[in-house]
Amino acid sequence: MQRSRFLFCFLCLFSAVSSVQADDVEQQIAKIKQVQKEGQGNQAASQAVQQLSQADQSALIPILSSFEGANPLAVNWLCGAFETIASKAIQQNKLPKEQLEKFILDKSHNPRARRLAYETLIKVDPEATERLIPGMINDPSVTLRRDAVQRLIDQAKELQKVGKKDEAKQAFQQALTGATDDDQVKAIVKPLRGLGEKIDLQKHFGFLSDWKIIGPFDNRELKGYDTAYPPEKKLDFSSALKGKEGEVNWKPVNTEDDYGIFDIAKSISPYKGAVMYCAADFYSPGEQELEIRLGTPNAWKIWVNGKLLFARNEYHRGMIMDQYSVPVTFKPGKNVILLKLCQNEQTESWAQRYQFQLRIARPSGTGVLSEKPEATTQLSR
Amino acid sequence: MMNKNALKLVLPLIAIGLCCGADWPQFRGPMTNNVATSDTPPTLVDQESIAWTADLEGRGASGPIVVGDKVFLTCATGFKQDQLHVLCFDAKTGKQLWDRQFWATGRTQCHNKMCVATPTPASDGKRVFATFSSNDVVCLDLDGNLLWFRGLSHDFPNASNSLGMASSPIVVGETLIVPVENDDDSFTTGLDVKTGISRWRIKRPRVANWTSPAILKPSADAETLVLLQSSEGVTAVYPETGETAWKYEQGAGRIPSTTVGDNTLYVPSNGLTALAPGSSSEPPKVLWQEQKLSPATASPLFYQKKVFTVNRAGVLTCANPEDGEVIWRLRLKGPFSATPIAAANHLYLVNEKGLLQVVQVGADEGKQTGEIDLKETILATPAIADNALFLRSDQHLWKISSK
Fold first, then answer.
1. Are residues B149 and A317, on separate chains, in Cβ contact within 8 Å?
2. Size of interface A-B (CB pairs under 8 A)
3. Would the ipTM clear 0.85, i.e. be above it?
């Protein structure tokens, strides 16, 4: 009886200790997730992350799960604690491998948490790569999907080397379904086109190619960036407006460039000290939280349905695909995108570009097409 | 015998050396002047001087820093270089001790020659502060435990540069000074080293800038100032408050940074400008300006009462700091992005192709005493500590020392 009583007391004590630890982990996580911009919440979070980092491996999955609903700052605080705990667990050979793998396979979890879990797991189980990556060709995680795409690219190249063209083509086509990074798309498209395939990259990426454009308006001495010319006040596609060089009208334009680049300098005129406005429609089947991804070497502002989303006053620091990502909520039906594009008066050869590319994408990078393309301002091709 | 004034100037250096254990705690060393306080790396070098080589991943142009027996550096991985790493190595063996990973919260686009892990980290001896081109700021203790995190581009979305940010932070007292100077939302901020909360934030000229701050401490009893350089010139600010002490407003370069030597500033401005510091009541005084000493990418160096610059052709020029007159020139194999560093009467210069060249400083000439070909692109400025050099490329971290 005494032995039973002792055992009972021990179990109660152990249970209490475990309960305190679990509760403590949740409390520290909650404090960390309260960090906000400009260092708000940092003091409490700093204490919390240091305490959380002392937890054992049982905290790893709760930390990963807590990425859901965490802002980008809090995600990094959680990363710091996770990595410290995981590092200790690996040294002590106590990493919960099965739980991590289960977490990775659950695509409903936060993509970055899944990636972190994956990178941790393969430190102790390199074979996990072959078990997990092949099934991730359309994964919500950008980085896991990228690894899956790369695996298929490598496979397709090997098939091509041994003359299995049809199988190589299939592998490349499958890889393309998941590819959103430019380097991988190029690595796929070149051989596919060489094998006779026709590929619409504009459609693949979701580039908008049909625009209405008006201008130039005055941007001499860079004053145009902050000047609200008529298109910013009201979009009236039928009216003539007073521009920098006289009367101007809206004109439909189109680009066939693979990457949706519309080059104002080459297609219209190499304006300097100028502002152009470009408008396009995007039809959404319902309310969608997506991203406008813009590439341009010019200063710009962008509105959707009359609301200013973002602006960047930078000239000629380069241009790449997805240079800027701007969150946007599209309403059901027609949405009007207005882009203000400013060119300065620099005379250097590298400062003459006046162009842009714009696509609609999910946060994961996959392109989203307008649902009613026939109703846009599309020109006959 | 050393006079009292000279002793006052030397004491802070000795104090810093003792306090840091001859650490190299930030970009351009303990006094941000490219000079080691007490360490003596080898002067006769060859391929056998490589003590160890450690593997690195991804990309990185940040210089290594050394605190005690640990080497810290940063790198970035992923197609968009949006996975940010702070790494720690054992200075004696090159063994990796830890690697902490974070996600960029700001933009990661940068020029091909640069990368997201371009700013060199800084340390106060207890913590490591790492910044990245994405304007993320990570603070860890020396064992890799996260202390705090800030995402300055997340906080201020137009604080960014499509060519990339490169300015390195410095830590003075309880404040980490982080330059975030660019074409749009341009500022420099002072963060509390314990929490990352801003002590101050000041507007800076709205133009891209890649220079790094320098420390100015005129005497033992004077307050330390931080020198912020931009296209408009140099501003001296109090590190604790960000308030301006004085300004030089004749313009300056946006890549090579100001160097301080013998209480004189050497500013990449109008070639090279020698400047006597100002005060709260007096503006700084231009002592001389010399176009022939115009630096390229590497910052100027003041050492052994001489001024050194490296031009685009890879020519090392030695000049008289009193008047800017050229004393000697030495053609090296360039080009150089890394700033030359100095110790034991020698300069250590590594070019962009990874060729480390050692030059003995003489009164009338510079003499090359050795070289090591590391055969990889090196853009990062090396560190001197533990009587050794530490250099890094994208792929490797090397220790160069005597056997």
1. no
2. 113
3. yes
